[in-house]
Structure formats: C-alpha cells, structure tokens
C-alpha cells in the first residue's frame, strides 16, 4: 500500500502555540533553537524559523523576478501603463510573500502515529498524508547553507514505492535526530511484525 494522501475540508486553525511547551536547545555549533510545539492534538509544529526561511525565499523571488521585469519595462517603455502595472504587481507579490509563510507555518504539522508518520499542511486547501512505517526504506537528512546557519534540517523519507516519499522540513537538528531514530525503529519493528517474527 502506497502512502495515503487525501484532501480534507478546511478545519479549525491551530491555536497559537503556548509559550510553556517550547524549550530551547543549544547544538554543537552553539546555535540556540526552539523545539517543536504540540498543537494540542498530538501533532507537532515545525521549528519557528521555518516561517522566516520560507519568507526569505518568497520575498527574494518577488523582488528578483517582479523587480527585474519592472525595471526592464521602465527602461524600454518609460513611464507607461505596463511598467506601472508590473510595479504594482511586484508590490502586491512582495507583501503576499511576507504574509503567507507565517500562515503556511501555522498549518504545517506532523505526528508519529501508531502505524504511520502523519503529515498535515495547507492554508486554503488542507492536505493530510500518511507514510506507513512498513514502507519506509531510508530517511535522508538534508541541510542547505541557510538551514545550517539556522540550526534546522529537512527529513526526507524514501519508501518502497519508487515515486513515493514524505518530507518534514525545517526541524531543529537535535530534534530531527530523535524523530529519525524513532521512525527507523518503528519501520524495523513494523517489518518484523509483517514477516511474522
């Protein structure tokens, strides 16, 4: 059975994380991070820096693409309708790119369930996915340069189905080690049970 994915109707927003369940941890690079916060239903939010990293990418894309197109239009056509429209679109795109990542963060969560890793995400269209433990073959730890400076990593699950995988982005490095170990152990036990041991 391949990992299951379904689109759910909109549900209630996660409540704002309370300050008390959040703890700080210092890794071997001296980076202080915040561990995941329970949403109240057993699901864990990502590291809070996820919103910042997504925001950097969104705003940078808006300024580079939109600003570049606007600059070229002004250089070619001068102060005309098209360049002004492009400038307005760039401003709106930038504002949206600043606002949306925080909403994305609030609606991205995961839970290690009884038989699968469960993922929830989506702001307007909510998606729930499950990666069964017995299908997990390996778990890769990925970390780009900006993630490294922020003390977070991405876990990428490789499953028995060639095109199927699950991804948990922007987890605190020390927390990701624990999550990876738990998932690998759950996968091992699940396969032993399936084999009749």
Describe this protein with a few key phrases.
197 residues, single chain, PH-domain like, three-stranded antiparallel beta sheet, elongated, disordered N terminus, alpha+beta
Architecture overview:
The chain is α+β, with helices and mostly antiparallel strands and 197 residues long. The chain folds into two domains: 4-46 and 108-194, PH-domain like; 53-102. The protein has helices at 49-77, 81-106, 145-150, 173-194; strands at residues 4-8, 24-26, 32-34, 44-45, 109-112, 116-121, 126-132, 136-142, 152-159, 165-172. Helix 1 (49-77) runs antiparallel to helix 2. It is elongated, with a radius of gyration of 20 Å. Mean pLDDT is 80; it is low at 1-12 and 14-34.
